[in-house]
Amino acid sequence: MASPNGSFFTTIITRNVCRDIRRQILLCRSLSSASSSEASASVEEQLSMPVNLSEDYGDSNKWDDLKTRIFSLRMPKRSATNVLERWVGEGRKIDISDLRSISKELRQSQRFKHALEISEWMVSHDEFEITDSDFAVRVDLMNKVFGIDAAERYFEALPSDIKTRETYTAILHCYAGSRLVDKAEALYNRMKEAKLDLTAVTYNELMTLYMSLGQLEKVPQVIEEMKSQNVALDLFTYHLWISSFAAALKIDEVQRILQEMSSCARSDASWKRYVELVNIYLASGHLVNSTQASLVESEKSISQREWITYDLLIILYGGLGNKDKLDQVWRSLRMTKQKMIGRNYASVISSYLLLDHLKEVREIIGQWKQSAATDFDIHICNRLKKAFTEIGMSEKAEALEAILSEQRCA
């Protein structure tokens, strides 16, 4: 889940509250109907399953840090809790910042069951000061390991003072991921009634949900709500707003938003790159306004709306300078096995080119030329060169020209 923005209200959990929450967690586990194989064992088995230390991480003397021991658990059924207890039993101390760091890496590695065990261990020990963010992470982990019903029960069972913006947004994230639009909207109304100090993150979750359901008309409504509540729009907010209009081929609206972004006092280097990339995309992709109620479908199952969403996601990560995510989305786009068009190549070439990753630009142009499904279009490349020149980046245009010459593109 996206990390909630803003400061966190630190809550010191008393012994009785910890005991109550632990019971609630166990109840959620026992009642959960999640399909995960990790959830199939009983609560007792998951909490106290013995670990074969020699099998999991060999002689413990070889391991001198907690993270290595936990990451050496090769099977999800092995207990991270046992590793923590053994560590403490050896007279070693555990810092909560270390637990948070290990949990984050486990989540990034999709080892959610072990991350959940660490979260449980944290809240069951009184010496740790647990923050709203810790509980928000736990809500998300409950959803990933045991399913949305368990996450919902856990959230509802939390004490009222722990139901803050962070934990509310966490369960909203779960609803959005499960496309439960009615529950998401009802929860948002509860958040407003509770007079929580909401940030762009909450509204972004709603807009992401509407985009996933194709309810494009609801995105501008959320933007208006944000502005009426004086909630600052972040880059991802603008991205969703632009994507909703681009997917509907309302290009005039896209250009109006780009002008607003350019004049925004909060804009930074990432915003500037994003605006430049969208402008280049519009110039090179030949997107035009459409008065049709529905978009033209491509030859197969993916719609023009979905293609544009892929393109703009590539542009978002290009604007953020996040090459790893850019690589990931490009791979996903190619794995759709749909017939790509020149506009798709234009979005990824311009993103890599703006970030000076010329090796990738060469590879993509080579792939495009060799594609049996999509004819290489030199005219799109020429429009890209022109667009870069018009925004004052003639060196990018020259780099692209040199690559085209190397590849003997006519």
Which residues sit in consecutive blocks of at least 5 with pLDDT less than 50?
1-60, 290-300
Q: Whole-number average pLDDT?
A: 82
Main β-sheet, spatial strand arrangement: 1-2
Structural class: mainly alpha
**What is the string of SSEs from the N terminus onward?**
EHHHHHHHEHHHHHHHHHHHHHHH
Oligomeric organization of the protein chains: single chain
Shape: globular
Could you tell me the strand content as a percent range? under 5%
- Total number of β-strand segments? 2
- Estimate percent helicity: 55-70%
Radius of gyration: 25 Å
Q: Work out the helix count.
A: 22
Task: Outline the biggest β-sheet.
Answer: 2 strands, antiparallel
Span between N and C termini?
Answer: 46 Å
Structure description:
- The chain has 410 residues and is mainly alpha-helical.
- It has a domain at 1-177.
- Helices cover 65% and strands 1% of the residues.
- The radius of gyration is 25 Å and the shape is globular.
- The two termini are 46 Å apart.
- Mean pLDDT is 82; it is low at 1-60 and 290-300.
- It holds the Pfam family PPR.
Short description:
The protein is mostly helical and about 400 residues long. It is built from 22 helices and two strands.
List the helices and strands and how they pair.
Layout: E1 10-11, H1 15-31, H2 43-48, H3 53-57, H4 66-71, H5 80-89, H6 96-108, H7 112-123, E2 130-131, H8 132-146, H9 148-157, H10 165-177, H11 181-193, H12 200-212, H13 218-228, H14 235-247, H15 251-263, H16 269-285, H17 304-320, H18 323-334, H19 342-354, H20 358-370, H21 378-390, H22 394-406
Antiparallel strand pairs: 1-2
Helix pairs in contact: 1-9, 6-7, 7-8, 8-9, 8-10, 9-10, 10-11, 10-12, 11-12, 12-13, 12-14, 14-15, 14-17, 15-16, 16-17, 16-19, 16-21, 17-18, 17-19, 19-20, 20-22, 21-22
InterPro entries: PPR_rpt, TPR-like_helical_dom_sf
PPR repeats: 164-198, 199-233
Keywords: Repeat
